[in-house]
Amino acid sequence: MTRVSRWGARLGLAGLVLAAAGCADGTTPSTDAGGAVDEKAPVTITIGDRPTPDKPNDIAAFERNIKEFMDAHPNITVKSTETKWDAQTFQAQVAGGSLPTVMNISFTEPANMIPNKQLPDITDELKLVDLTKDLNPDVLKIVQDGDGRIYGVPIDVFSVGLAYNRALFQQAGLDPDKPPTTWDEVRQYARQITEKTGKAGYAQLTKDNTGGWMLTTMTYSMGGSVQSQDGTKSTFDDAPAKKALQLLKDMRWSDNTMGSNFLYNQEEIRQDFAAGKIGMVLQAPDAYDMCVKNFGMKPADYGHGALPQDGGPHGTLTGGSIKMINPKASTNEIVAALKWIKSQEFDKYTNEQLAVQNAKDSIADRGFVGRPGITPLSQETYDRYNTWREPYNNVPVEQFEGYVESTRTLKLLPEPANKAQEVYALLDPVVQQVLTKKDADIDKLLTDAASKIDARLAR
Amino acid sequence: MSLLRTPQSGRSGIRSLATWYRSGGLSAIVFALPLVLTFLYFSWSPIVRGLVLSFQKNNLVTTPEWVGLANFSYVLTDPQLPQATVNTLYFALLALIFGFPVPLFLAVFISELRSAGWLYNVISYLPAVVPPVAAILLWKFFYDPSGAGVFNSILGWFGLGPFAWLNSPDLAMPAIVLEATWAGAGATSIIYLAALTGVRTELYEAAELDGAGIWKRVWHVTLPQIRGIILIMMLLQLIGTFQVFTEPFLFTGGGPDNATTTILLLIYRYAFINGDFGAATALSVLLAGVLCVLSVVYHLLTRRWSIT
Amino acid sequence: MTDERGIISVADRKRPLVRHGLPAIQVLLFVGVVIAGVGPLLWLLKSGLSTSQDILRGPMQLWPSGIQWQNIPDAWTRVQIGSYLGNTAIIAIGSLLSTLFVCTTGAFVLSVLRPKWGPVVTGAVLATLFLPGVISLVPLYLTILKMPVLGFNLQNTFWAVWLPQAAGAFNILVMKRYFDSIPRELIEAARIDGASNLRLFTSLVLPLSKPIVGVVALLTVIGSWKDYLWPLLVLPDPRLQPISVALPRVAATTEISLQMSALFLAVLIPVVLFLVFQKQFLKGVGMSGGIKE
């Protein structure tokens, strides 16, 4: 147009440079840094989670998405980095202020990041890009403060179930279409698997915070809790957690049905599961992707059932991913980031053509279509989306029936609200001791862990 | 300004400036710049900053808050600290038991094999050439606790095992040290070997005439002469083992049941998992204090030996 | 061969116990050293050419399902061992150059030019020698994330590994001590001939210091070869990671056969390099022991 708009553009750029410079200095951001929204102003955003070079198909798909988005939004420039969330280094990255504009983080983070002002308030911008209405209000709670302001966008939800090896079930004389639904059955099945096949009937995650994570899940399934509602005190020093540990202890030492490896993180246990060394293991259904794609498991061998319960349906642990936005982002950047998130994560749910295209792309990129999960959207939206994509399913959905059934019946219980990853880290050794020390004193272990965790929560 | 003052101060300014220039002057500053800048950025200021951080509550987002000794008291009362300390000492002790006699014996022996010695040398140095992380991943697989694991199969031929290795709170640490010894023995023995070439051989003659047997000669003639380097290697090893991280981090992540959690692993957890930089630096400062004493001892010793 | 005697004398060798015992010990030791030094490499070679199932079921058997030659090119292209080894080399060479640059120029100032403020700098450097690296791990990491005054972030650049490496007090002091031993008369003579400080540095001091430069270089390369935690922290970008950081990450998400062939390649290349240069290498390592004294 005219000179004025060009000046505007330049000022916008200068603002960006300032914002970028501001990124580095670790100060508390002001929520109205960018002033009024200008949806036409040129803006640059950086997105994290770019696939690594060993996955050329994923990179190609990723680059294509960026290009399409930039063609559709000429004023937005999208850059990307491989930065991704990792429980082990995320705090350091936040501290360093080196985060991209948008990246995925775990459900466990916002509870501590919101009060620390490490996430921006994006309530108004969400309304502007018309995203809020799609979201399931229960899931949205994860990213809200007491006043209902929103600080992130949940995009993916999982709940824990029981992954099992159908081939081992068959060899052990068990019906592969009937996974166990109670912990008593799990113990019984594990015995049968070990007896008939010599493999571990059941294995447990124990390392890199996953030990605490799965102990929490088991405690939930026994009707217990791990942390008080307000996140100030631990609550696991009671019957359900004891029962969970006692069960592990019995399976390990009396039945000897848990194999010989008791130091497992997520990748290691999936590797052994895919190699047919483990009969049953607690996993979210996305384990299918890695087991089949990375570790060469036969799709026909994979089964996924509900999280086993003890004495009535109590519920299962849910978690998931959130798109977080850099707290230093200007309003224009936030809006651009939300448009990106909407186009990548949400439009496909409401647009049949996009949903189908997305499925075709996944297949072309050697990905999976139709693997069951749960949704951050309303159930009807999700069901409709799945109907559109059904003809393209390349995952044996019927082998997930036990799990799918349970998503409708089991209550979804959130992870501990306060410092969840630290709580998990301190519970890891508890699980490890029960599995590696025959005379482990469960009562004392839990009491000690509770006092350690309460000290952390108070700090 | 004091830079400009030369011993002949009092003479004319131009003259002293010239002397200053001649004695290095400007170019001395230019030559010193790389050293001063790298140390300023990567040594001196991080040390000061570490000390400051240890007295603060600082998550680097909200404004830092002075908390006095709270970080230190928190770290010292953390129930994980005694265990990590014991583990670290245990690692150091085992590393000394495994890692000290093996290379020394190897070196003494190789030095006796004049013609084939180089072959032993090359072969025994091979493990040190393997990328250390690759070696750890390989050994982690060797330590597979099932009967089909590599070590368990081999021991199974002799009717032993299967052992739980890394999965046992009692065996995990020795297993880690065994790998570390394997990886380090070759390099250490070569250093001993170089020291052995300096041993005065006429003393063997004398000892033999006095009727000393082979073992006596090793004990009374060889070892005392390389006593200096032995002590230094031991101290360096000790200082190194106090900061051990990679092996427990990759082998066990500190498990099972914290049996292999070392102090550095604890520092890493404080800082990079909990984001508690105050506690992390407080523990670093404490550990540094202990190590500082060790390295002062080391320097006193080396000074004494380089004089004698 | 017998001109220089060892602990065991000619007379000893005639005693029956020694005559039979020594070869026995030799054989035992040789077997032990070979098993420890070559065994794992051979096992890795075998496993790198096996199927995953074979490795898991019978790790000590030869190839029950035949040799899988395809594993090796697969590991090379899919795991990209080559580029990670390349990064390792870049990191080692860069650390080497920065270390040598800083410690030769620094030692030159402190030992040869000896300005009035020299002892202060020497003292400040010496002080850090007694403080182990662990004290500055966290603050050093924060420094990399945001360089004081300059304000930029060195994370995900090789500088983040190269520069801190150069701030090693040990190298500087060793270098300084060596420079101290250069006769002052040589330096004075060069000065009288009108040599500038730069000339003095490049044509007199450096050529005289080849052995020590070699040893410091070797120690630096070995140190950076072994480093894990630091590059793990400052190089989160997989395209920049050295082999040590990349391997555990890659191993976590690849099946066991590919993992083993990747490990094999990661081991093979340095072992071959070592065997080619073993003479110079072992001599340097042996000398480094003398330096520590």
Automatic annotation (TrEMBL), chain A:
Pfam families, alphabetized: SBP_bac_1
Keywords: Signal
Organism of this sequence: Kribbella turkmenica
InterPro entries (UniProt xref): Bact_solute-bd_prot1, SBP
Keyword Nucleotide-binding: no
Residues spanning the signal sequence: 1-19
Annotated protein name in UniProt: Extracellular solute-binding protein
Organism phylogeny: Bacteria, Bacillati, Actinomycetota, Actinomycetes, Propionibacteriales
Cited PANTHER family: ARABINOSE-BINDING PROTEIN-RELATED, SUGAR-BINDING LIPOPROTEIN
From TrEMBL, chain B:
Gene Ontology biological-process entries: transmembrane transport
Family, per entry: Belongs to the binding-protein-dependent transport system permease family.
Residues passing through the membrane, by range: 20-44, 89-110, 122-142, 226-245, 277-301
PROSITE patterns documented for this protein: ABC_TM1
Protein's membrane topology: Multi-pass membrane protein
Pfam family, one: BPD_transp_1
Residue span(s) of domain ABC transmembrane type-1: 85-298
Gene3D superfamilies attached to this UniProt entry: MetI-like (1.10.3720.10)
Superkingdom field: Bacteria
Gene Ontology CC: plasma membrane
Keywords: Cell membrane, Membrane, Transmembrane, Transmembrane helix, Transport
InterPro entries: ABC_transporter_permease (IPR051393), MetI-like (IPR000515), MetI-like_sf (IPR035906)
Subcellular location: Cell membrane
Name of the featured protein: Sugar ABC transporter permease
TrEMBL record, chain C:
Topology relative to the membrane: Multi-pass membrane protein
Residue span(s) of domain ABC transmembrane type-1: 85-277
Gene Ontology CC entries for this record: plasma membrane
Stored InterPro entries: MetI-like, MetI-like_sf
Transmembrane segments: 21-45, 89-113, 120-142, 162-179, 200-225, 256-277
Compartment list: Cell membrane
Pfam families in alphabetical order: BPD_transp_1
Keywords from the UniProt entry: Cell membrane, Membrane, Transmembrane, Transmembrane helix, Transport
GO annotation, biological process: transmembrane transport
Broad class of where this protein is predominantly found: membrane
Taxonomy, superkingdom: Bacteria
SUPFAM superfamilies: MetI-like (SSF161098)
Family under the similarity heading: Belongs to the binding-protein-dependent transport system permease family.
Name of the protein in its database record: Carbohydrate ABC transporter permease
Organism (species): Kribbella turkmenica
